[in-house]
Design goal:
four-stranded antiparallel β-sheet; 4 strands; alpha+beta; single chain
Length: about 80
């Protein structure tokens, strides 16, 4: 079995979270699992965050998702296959 994992780092989470969510919603049929991580404490909420996606679908669909995410100024997305 081949797993396709997309790692998304958001450097300005509060600013870009809505735009990233819109892109993920557009590609929701290709997302099997989504996990979002960011540092939270009683004093602060981190500006950066990490989203891990288990994706499925045609290579062209996954590439389009990555291209849209990487076109955003403070977002970096990479695909890893295992």
């Amino acid at each position: 079995m081949n797993f396709k994992i997309v790692l998304i780092k958001i450097d300005q989470r509060i600013k870009d979270a809505g735009v990233v969510q819109k892109v993920l919603t557009e590609h929701g049929c290709n997302i099997r699992v989504r996990l979002g991580l960011h540092e939270v404490s009683t004093d602060a909420c981190a500006q950066d965050g990490l989203i891990i996606l288990h994706v499925d679908g045609l290579s062209e669909e996954i590439k389009l998702l990555l291209d849209k995410l990487n076109s955003l100024e403070f977002v970096h997305a990479n695909l890893t296959e295992m």
